[in-house]
Predict the structure.
Amino acid sequence: MSYLNIGLAKISAWNPLLNRREFLTQLALLFGGAITAIIPASGLVRLVSAQGNVNQTVQVSFDAVPSLTIMYPRAYQFNVVAETSSGLTITNLHWDFGDGSTLDVPFSAQNVVGEIQYHIYSQAGTYNVAVTATDNSGNVGTVQATVQWP
């Protein structure tokens, strides 16, 4: 039997323009246990893409296309959602920005997490960005995107 849950997702993000961490609360729609849409405060629905290996226990996806910010200094904004099976929790998101920069973000007590990161590249080029989520049973899931820095 499929079911629909509606809940709030608290998303944290480091804003390099303001040099502080910001917290956003968004409405999440879950159908059959998987996030199907996130509705930000603006009210616009962003569909979660089915990127990554959907056969894994941990599923990771970009919930928006990585995009350049319009304010100076320009940075890429990456929005990621990770989900693991009921009864398990996401413990870590490992970010690899493709230029040698990495970041580990710890989590606890949530089986669905969202994270927004901003990254500034120092040289023009094409970069492969990967985000790997790990749960408390050691299951992992990864999503990747390629970005072009001007």
Notes: The first strand starts at residue 4 and ends at 15. The chain is about 0% helix and 60% strand.
